[in-house]
C-alpha cells in the first residue's frame, strides 16, 4: 500500500497521528484479535473509533519472541504506572521495543491485565463462562506466530482507565478516551504486535459495549 494521508483532513478516524506513506490500514472488529509485525522506525496509530474501548496489547521482538514486553521493567524505568507520550515499552532485558510518540488520551493502563474465562467466572459468576476473553484471543492469534500460553506476559491496556486507590486496590472505571482518540507507537526494533480488541461486557472498560478500532501503520518521511 502506497497511500499517503492528507494531514489537512480533519476527520481524526481517517488519519494517523504520524503522517507518511501507509503500509497497513485495518479495522479490528469488536471482540476480535489482530496482529502484525511493525518494522523498526514505522509508527502504529491505534484509533479508538467509538470511544471507551479497551485494547489489550502484547509486544515481542519479531526476530526473537523470547524478548517480550515487560510491564515491571517498563514501569521501573519510567517511574510511573501509566503510559503516555514518551513512554518506552521495554522488554525484561531493558531493550526498547516501541515508544509512545503521540497520545491524545494521556494515560493508558499497565496493571489491569487481560480478561479470561476463568477471571470472568471468578469476578462475575458462572453465567459468564461461555464468554471468551482477551486471553483466548491472545492464544488464538499468537498461535499464528508459533506462540503458546508460555509466551504470554502482562499486557498493556490501551485506552483503559484503572485507578489505584490509596489502599492499593485497583478499579476498572469508565475510560478517559472518546470517539476518534488515538495513540501512536514507534517501533524501535521490528516488533510483533498482538492485540485483543477486548470483548469484556461485564465492567465499564468498554462501556459494556465492545466496539471496533483501527490500526494504521505509517512510514515517516525520513524512512520512506
TrEMBL record:
One Pfam family linked to the record: DUF1989
Classification via InterPro entries: DUF1989 (IPR018959), UAAP2 (IPR017791)
Domain DUF1989 positions: 27-192
Coiled-coil blocks: none
Domain of life: Bacteria
Classification via PANTHER family: RE64534P
Name the record gives this protein: DUF1989 domain-containing protein
